[in-house]
Specification:
285 residues, alpha/beta, two-stranded antiparallel sheet
Length: 285
């Protein structure tokens, strides 16, 4: 697979988002492990997770534990950059809450280290701004984790341009990634993508195909993706990921998957070369 860079690490141009394997509607463990192994077999070397990817209150870190198990049981597991996140919580009633306090983020990182079974987390990302905590304080905790060697690289998620610039300043220019929602249905993160392109920071679109419930409807909702897909003999989802890759060399989509066949299809996106006219047509959707 083609590769791109996050910080000083070379990763596959397409990553795997782990959330669908751990929240509501998740598959059984055997299928999840098969999905992760299929990703590795297809050349994926970036897996994104979070301690909040779980369903019930007593299983915090379900997805991190699942990924650690899958990597330990595959011969390519050691080649993978695992990116996890802290600062988002799930009480177990289906809701999402926030805790961006420095003390909590440090505790969350320690717990993630234990679940992943590593001495240092490859990429640790502040999951979402907490309006009750000054952003600089939350990112400052990530900086301390970086300086202490608990994490190898630092990123942020769900950030606006001002927060990206502030985080990079607090981290002394060591911000390596920004993970924001971006898809044909959600284009409001284009300013963040453009800023990352300018600064040379990896931009990781989450839910790049529109989310768990809508990914299968991408072609019917956005006709140009279906038309171009038919022309190339591929899925609209593959066209979507190829379009994102064509927008900037800093883009590394992380489509979620819970079936081996879907991540195999996504992993083939870097092989699809879209013309400039096709990219422009999709940009105009």
């Amino acid at each position: 697979m083609d590769t791109r860079r996050i910080g000083d690490v070379e990763v596959s141009a397409i990553g795997l988002g782990g959330m669908p394997m751990s929240i509501e509607g998740r598959p059984d463990e055997a299928r999840s492990l098969a999905t992760i192994h299929a990703a590795l077999d297809a050349g994926v070397t970036l897996i994104d997770t979070a301690d909040a990817y779980h369903q019930f209150a007593d299983e915090v870190g379900h997805n991190e534990t699942l990924i650690a198990k899958a990597l330990a049981s595959h011969y390519r597991g050691a080649d993978v950059l695992v990116a996890t996140k802290g600062g988002h919580l799930r009480p177990g009633d289906g809701s999402w809450t926030l805790n961006g306090s420095p003390a909590y983020l440090k505790e969350a990182c320690e717990a993630s280290l234990r679940r992943l079974g590593v001495e240092a987390i490859g990429l640790y990302q502040f999951h979402r701004p907490d309006p009750r905590v000054p952003y600089a304080e939350s990112v400052g905790a990530v900086r301390e984790l970086l300086d202490e060697g608990k994490i190898r690289m630092a990123g942020i998620s769900n950030a606006d341009p001002e927060q990206i610039r502030l985080a990079n300043e607090i981290l002394d220019g060591r911000l390596v990634s920004v993970q924001n929602q971006f898809s044909p249905a959600f284009r409001s993160s284009e300013p963040e993508l453009d800023l990352c392109d300018e600064l040379g920071i990896a931009f990781l679109p989450w839910s790049p195909l529109g989310g768990i419930a809508r990914a299968g409807e991408l072609g019917s909702a956005y006709a140009p993706f279906a038309t171009i897909a038919e022309k190339h003999g591929v899925s609209p989802q593959r066209v979507c990921l190829a379009w994102m890759l064509a927008k900037s060399p800093v883009v590394v989509p992380i489509p979620g998957a819970s079936r081996p066949e879907t991540i195999r299809d996504s992993a083939a996106a870097p092989e699809l070369a879209l013309s400039a006219d096709e990219v422009a047509e999709l940009d105009a959707v």
